[in-house]
Amino acid sequence: MKKRSKGMLMTALICGAIMPVFYGGAVAHAEKTHSFDLPTIIVEAEGNVVELPGGMVNETAKMGVFGNKSVMEIPYSEMSMTQKSVETFVNPAGPLQSVLINNPSIRTSSTSPMYSDFSMRGINMNGNHMMLNGIPSLFYQFAEPRSHFIERIDITSGPNAGVNGVSMSNNGTNSGATPAPGTINVVTKRAKDTPITRYTQTFTGRGNFGEYIDVGRRFGKNKEWGVRINGEYLDGELSSRKAKDKERNIFVNLDHRSEKSNTNIFLGHWDKRVYHGQRWFTFNGKSDSMPEAPNSKNNYDFDGTVKYMRGWMFTINHDQKIGKNLDWFVNAGHHYRTGYKYNSSSALKFNEFGKFDSSNVSNAQAEEGNNTYIQTGVRGKFKTGIVEHNVSLSVDRSYAKYWNNTHNSAKGTIGGDLYNGVAYLAGFEIPELRTPTLQWDEVNTGITIGDSMKIGKKWNVSIAASRKHENFENKVNGQKIKNNNVLPTYGITYQPTENIAIYAGHTEAFSRGSVVSGTKYVNDGETLDPSTSKQNEIGVKVKSGKTLTTFSLFDIDQQSVIDTDLGGGMYRRAIDGRERFRGAELTFNGKPHDKWTFTGGLMYLDNERRKTAGGANDGKFVNGVAKWSGVLGLIYEPDDKWGIMGRLVACGTSYIDNASSPTGKTRIPSYATLDLGVNYKAKMGKVPVTISATCFNVLNKDYWMGRGSSTTFGLSMPRTLLLSATFDL
Predict the structure, then answer these.
(1) Hey, CA dihedral for 498, 499, 504, 505, is it positive or negative?
(2) What is the pLDDT of residues 450-504, one digit of tens each?
(3) In this structure, what CATH number is given to the domain that contains residue 713?
(4) Is 589 left (phi over 0), alpha (psi -120 to 50) or beta?
(5) Contacts for 398 with CB less than 8 Å, ≥ 6 apart
(6) Nearest to 30 by CA among 696, 687, 595
(7) Mapping DSSP to helix (H, G, I), strand (E, B) and coil, where does residue 15 land?
(8) What are the start-end ranges of the E strands in 425-546?
(9) How far apart are CA 457 and CA 495, in angstroms?
């Protein structure tokens, strides 16, 4: 009760502190203006992207090789978040999940900028599963798209694997290769017809300051050439003790458009360092209840803890008309990264009293990665009777190499507990950093063919298949894996009226097995068997006035990987049957009233394991997956100067395996968090200024977060205040 009263008091104080900001004229402020103004429908020149009233989501999204389509024609759940959604809900010093969780299928499993992990429909994902301008595998667990260069985020939580071509199985330091339950495609900012020169300052946490530039111009007789430059400098302390984030990057987007072609080139360099800020744990206590979550401000890192990575990337997308109804396209990208980290065990183990286990170690790791992708193909349109065909044929190839060297300290030198922090005992030392060695390389080649058919005014049928040829070599043990498989995707949509769509879809995905990585595994370096998954979905989409609602039922079946505790801090990672996720999802977005916009939804997820070894785990829950979760974001705009935002995020109870517990499992409690924000538009002389303030986790809730299909879990971040000011020069 005391804690809640303190939280309410702090909230009142924060709101009181915010008010003078709007009348004082100047402030240190937040990345990309947290602007809550709600525009009417806008049609973009690039790709005919249409916004839903309220400006939070688009009515169109990219459907893989078929290009942009109306969400009413897409046979799976689709949510295309706009730049305004990103600016409204992002925390610049945190992971992109602060935006992604507006989609009810997505739940975050980490609030630390050290990680990009989240789950979609219960299945763990991270930056590696995101696409950039349609190019796969340009990000990974530590690195994800920076919010300041994002134009929109197309989130597909449904069966679409066969329309996206091949991708790498690499999951970086997370060693996974699980086929994703959906797709997240980030589209970068292009120059608009109206010039933009924007400067933003941010302040968040205990002393984290950021500066951002956003400059866009179009040139030429018909403004056919465009350039957009986005840069970031972020440095200072986060809201948890001793944690710091330092980021520097610059990105340039060049584009050319004409009657017969469109070309877009995006390239940039990034440099990211996170000091302290570790938030992952493992529980081995003799209890079926998790100890109370500690103060999320606590620090669990030794002095010198840092995770550092730098790299560069580029993408190129080109569409060329080669006939009246025939286009040729090329999509390509490359990403290189190198860096290191010093930290304590990536998931600190503690018992039922919150005391840290003697098996924890300190760690030094050096790594390097190289990912390259190229795709080319043709798209054509023709009619057969009443059927309009949109046919695509493409070939693509991906290349990936990964270098790593992990060196751990002796066990038994880390003590302390959750509530007082880590204590380093006699003999503790930081391991030396060693030169990384090549762990594996992978080359995948694919051929994708598809036909999206419009039959009359009411029927849409999509059929696609990717033939994937996979070649993987584990350089640690010399193991070579070759796979040839076909990934089918098909769907059907029926529109009895223009504003109602009933749909059904199916897809299958395949990926080489993960490489077991870590000295805590007795089978370190082993490559597990290939992983397969199937997904089915049926649903209905309804446009009513200025709102769009989607209701879906889905069924996902995938391979199950478990860690068996062998004692003494050692584990064996192995495949154990299948995991099945069946659920219902409701998504709603739009502007039901002139002054109100809402976004969010609910998800129910029934999950279980089956076909396990000897049936020992048949019918058991999937680790870290809650049955219920939901999000509701509301924006109120009383006039054209003010915007007020509120968001409630809730996640139900989940469980993890625990051989030490009397019941064989441990409960992770449910949680709910509240975010509030406000902005004000003013002028300093002739310069338009948007001043914003957002408070994440307003009630300062401390809670554990489950991680899909894993016995590890995350700790929340404390209440975080974000201030921003954006100047349109």
Answers:
(1) positive
(2) 999 999 999 999 999 888 888 888 888 888 888 888 888 899 999 999 999 999 9
(3) 2.40.170.20
(4) beta
(5) 136, 137, 166, 167, 168, 371, 372, 373, 442, 443, 444
(6) 696
(7) helix
(8) 437-455, 459-474, 480-497, 500-511, 531-544
(9) 8
Predicted confidence (pLDDT) at residue 35 exceeds the cutoff of 60? no
Closest residue by Cα to residue 144 from 131, 127, 125, 165: 127
**Alpha carbons 255 and 491: distance in angstroms, whole number:** 33
R_g (Cα) of the chain, nearest Å: 25
Residues 85, 165: contact at Cβ < 8 Å?
A: no
Picking from 205, 135, 211, 132, the residue whose alpha carbon sits closest to that of residue 166 is 135
- Alpha-carbon distance of 185 to 108, in angstroms, equals 18
CA angle 138, 144, 146 (to 5 degrees): 110
Write phi, then psi, for 161 (nearest 5 degrees). -55, -35
By C-alpha distance, which of 161, 181, 64 is closest to 468? 161
Please count the other Cβ atoms lying within 10 Å of the Cβ belonging to residue 219. Answer: 12
- Per the DSSP assignment, residues forming a β-bridge with 230 are 214, 251
pLDDT band at 183 (very low <50, low <70, confident <90, very high): confident
- pTM, two decimals, is 0.89
Whether the Cβ atoms of residue 558 and residue 529 lie closer than 8 Å to each other:
no
Mean pLDDT of the chain: 88
Q: Cβ(182)–Cβ(161) under 8 Å?
A: no
Provide the 10 A C-beta neighbour count for residue 412.
16
* CB-based contacts of 667, cutoff 8 Å, min separation 6: 288, 289, 290, 653, 654, 655
Tens-place pLDDT, residues 374-421: 999 999 999 999 999 999 999 999 999 999 999 889 888 999 999 999
* Distances from the Cα of 239 to the Cα of 101, 236, 625, angstroms: 20, 10, 27
Strand 150-156 and strand 106-108: the pairing is: unpaired
| 590 φ/ψ sector (left φ>0, alpha ψ -120 to 50, else beta) | left
Rounded distance, CA 323 to CA 67, Å?
Answer: 18
Provide the residue range defining the domain that includes 660: 2-728
Give the pair of three-digit tokens for residue 231.
């840069």
How many other β-carbons are positioned within 10 Å of the β-carbon of residue 351? Answer: 16
How many domains does the chain contain in total?
Answer: 1
First-to-last alpha carbon distance for the chain, in angstroms, is 48
**Please, which residues bridge with residue 323 across strands?**
326
Q: What percent of the chain has pLDDT over 70?
A: 91
The better pLDDT of the pair 34, 272 is held by 272
Query: What is the per-residue pLDDT across 513-548, written as a single tens digit (0 to 9) for each?
Result: 777 877 778 888 787 877 778 899 999 999 998 999
| Type of residue at 243 | A
Closest CA to 350 of 304, 297, 284: 284
Q: What is the 3-state secondary structure (H, E, C) of 162-211?
A: HHCCCCCCCCHHHCCCCCCCCEEEEEECCCCCCCEEEEEEEEECCEEEEE
**671, 664, 581: which is closest to 105 by C-alpha?**
581
SS3 percent helix, strand, coil of the chain, rounded to 5, is 5, 55, 35
H helix runs in 70-137, sequence order: 83-89, 97-100
Q: Which two tokens stand for residue 724?
A: 């921003």
CB 126 within 8 A of CB 113: no
Contacts of 41 (CB under 8 A, 6+ apart): 50, 51, 52, 53, 59
Total residue length of the chain: 729
CA dist 351 and 358 (Å) reads: 10
Q: Quickly count: other Cβ atoms within 10 Å of residue 535's Cβ.
A: 28
- In the structure encoding, which two tokens stand for residue 441, read together? 């390389």
Element (H, E) at 14: helix 2-24
Gap between the Cα atoms of 138 and 333, Å rounded: 8
